[in-house]
Specification:
The complex is a heterodimer of chains A (294) and B (283).
Chain A (H helix, E strand, L loop, with lengths): L1 H36 L18 H8 L1 H32 L6 H8 L1 H4 L2 H11 L6 H8 L15 H26 L4 H9 L4 H29 L3 H6 L11 H11 L3 H30 L1
Helix pairs in contact in A: 2-13, 3-8, 3-10, 6-8, 8-10, 10-13, 12-13
Chain B lengths: L1 H35 L3 H4 L14 H8 L3 H37 L5 H13 L2 H14 L6 H25 L3 H9 L4 H12 L1 H16 L3 H6 L7 H8 L7 H36 L1
Classes of the chains: A mainly alpha (294), B mainly alpha (283).
């Protein structure tokens, strides 16, 4: 028996080593390297002045109002897009859970936005929201909703809203499909029993459906939060962080600091603050998930 | 009678809702396709034309014939992205299947810790490690190379594939494998003869996801490539630049960049939906 467990260990080693090499080599080492860099004032514009400066990069980031603005923008983007994706995703999932004509086709067509690469998604919406020739202005004006053409992507409020719209368009199908899978696990008898007890359909949704799909909602929330914190492509293509910093999210802010200011030390410090922030967030999420399941 | 009326109005409401959902789902991309075959004159006139008066496929032809630097870069981007996506898919499926099997079936020291670290790496925003990666790659002369992008993307996609394959293997009853082993199969033999054939749907779903994820990657490609390894996403982003704006090419680039993932999704939709939901619902 002992020899078999030894050979099992050896086999496991052979099977897992390639994954460990690829993942640790390309993720863990750079992660540690970034930590090291964050204690130096490395700036590629002045390479000879590099020295160890303790936590000064971190302090300067915490004092930087633009860092807080970008964090605020990221949180704003994350919360609004996530709430909209959950609401629309829930509606779509409820519809797909009904029986109707050509359901298979609708179900297939609905995931198309999810398949579209973020850069293309950004391009699509940038073109739609174009101030002179875009279809959004044209349609809204002919419907009488707006009187004059708007410069959507240069508007302090609407620029972020269009970015959120693009994100919601792409990810609602994914959320809907996950919620649908959860809906399908709910036994029909529960609804029948509630009906007999006199609960109307709204009441049934609130007290049966939502509690039963809560674990999936939490999974969706976690997945979408982490993805939303990575958002970069949409901002890069649609607004480049403008107007007036209104759409600069943390990843775009880090990108600017590192690759246009060439401030490597400070960029690495911002990166690390993001990691710490994400770790706290995931800890809180995992805890709330445990509470919910128990 | 009352019930019938209520039922009918409910059905009408359902179909109206389906039409609204389909409109919002499909219209933006359809509009991009229409724009890509409209003449510039039509694109630059207000109000918009929903049906192009003189549809033109010149832009699509141009991708293969034009000598304009942006168009050449775009053509190369299509080729590079195809090579990268295929390479990542193969690499991730091979390594991910083996590792996923080990995590599902074998006992070894620090198993859970390793899995947790793998999942943690999936959570890190790419921007965090790209700074260090850029300098390491530039020291090792690995910038602007298709092969470095294949390894880089694999490192990001693997944790996800390992997790999914592990979940898939866990759903296969242990008895099947044990029966084969009693009949004289080795563990590796059982893996190839029983486990892998039984998990074909999982392999297909994961292969497609790996392909799609590497096809759509942008940030790493933007920073780590300058010329010969440029991917399709970087080439598309260049069509949307500030100085040179060609709305028609912007739309065409978008359609070409999306057509492969969209077709794959339409053909393998069932597998993908299963793959996405099984991982999420079981956790």
């Amino acid at each position: 028996m002992k020899t078999s467990s030894m050979s099992q260990k050896k086999l496991a080693l052979i099977l897992v080593i390639p994954a460990v090499v690829v993942i640790f080599g390309i993720v863990i080492y750079p992660l540690l390297n970034a930590l090291y860099q964050s204690f130096f004032n490395t700036n590629l514009a002045y390479p000879l002045l590099t020295k160890f400066i303790w936590l000064q990069n971190y302090l300067s980031v915490f004092k930087d109002i633009y860092f807080w603005k970008s964090l605020y923008n990221t949180v704003y983007f994350t919360i609004i897009s996530m709430v909209l994706e959950l609401i629309f995703g829930f509606i779509v999932a409820l519809v797909l859970n009904e029986k109707f004509f050509m359901k298979w086709l609708v179900r297939t067509l609905i995931i198309i936005p999810w398949a579209i690469p973020p850069v293309v998604n950004a391009t699509v919406w940038k073109w739609i929201a174009n101030s002179e020739y875009g279809s959004l202005n044209s349609i809204l004006k002919s419907l009488g909703i707006i009187k004059e053409y708007r410069i959507w992507l240069s508007d302090p409020f609407w620029s972020m809203m269009i970015i959120i719209l693009a994100d919601v368009w792409k990810y609602t199908p994914l959320v809907a499909i996950m919620l649908l899978a959860a809906l399908q696990t709910i036994p029909e008898d529960l609804y029948e029993a509630a009906k007999i007890d006199g609960a109307n359909s709204f009441r049934r949704t609130i007290s049966i459906t939502i509690p039963l799909i809560k674990p999936t909602i939490i999974v969706v929330l976690i997945l979408r939060t982490f993805e939303a914190f990575k958002v970069f492509d949409l901002v890069f293509v649609m607004t480049r962080g403008g107007p007036a910093f209104k759409t600069t999210v943390v990843s775009y802010f880090t990108y600017l600091e590192t690759f246009s200011q060439l401030n490597i030390g400070r960029g690495s410090a911002i990166a690390y603050i993001i990691v710490i922030f994400m770790s706290i967030l995931s800890y809180l999420y995992i805890r709330s998930m445990k509470d919910n399941i128990n | 009678m009352k019930i019938n009326l209520k039922y009918r109005s409910k059905r009408v409401f359902l179909y109206v809702l389906i039409i609204i959902i389909l409109f919002f789902t499909l219209a933006p991309f359809l509009w991009t396709i229409i724009s890509s075959i409209s003449t510039n004159q039509e694109l630059l006139s207000a109000p918009i034309h929903i049906i192009p008066q003189n549809p033109t496929f010149e832009r699509y032809k141009g991708i293969f014939t034009s000598t304009d630097t942006k168009m050449v870069a775009f053509k190369r981007g299509i080729i590079n992205s195809s090579i990268i996506a295929c390479g990542v898919t193969v690499l991730c499926l091979v390594i991910g299947t083996f590792a996923g099997y080990a995590f599902a079936r074998l006992n070894f020291p620090r198993k859970n810790m390793t899995l947790q670290v793998f999942l943690f790496t999936n959570m890190i925003p790419p921007i965090v490690i790209i700074i260090a990666i850029y300098f390491i790659f530039s020291k090792l002369k690995l910038l602007d190379s298709v092969f470095s992008l294949i390894f880089l993307y694999s490192s990001f996609i693997l944790p996800f594939i390992i997790w999914m394959m592990r979940s898939y293997f866990l759903t296969i009853p242990k008895d099947l494998e044990e029966a084969a082993m009693i009949d004289g199969c080795t563990r590796i033999g059982a893996l190839f003869r029983i486990m892998i054939p039984l998990s074909t749907p999982g392999l297909v779903a994961n292969g497609i996801l790996a392909f799609l994820m590497s096809w759509e990657e942008f940030l790493f490609a933007l920073i780590l490539t300058t010329d010969k390894a440029k991917t399709i996403t970087v080439a598309i982003a260049e069509f949307t630049g500030k100085q040179y704006v060609d709305y028609g090419m912007m739309a065409t680039g978008g359609v070409v960049g999306a057509i492969v993932p969209v077709l794959i999704t339409l053909i393998f939709g069932k597998y993908i939906i299963k793959g996405l939901t099984s991982g999420a619902v079981k956790g």
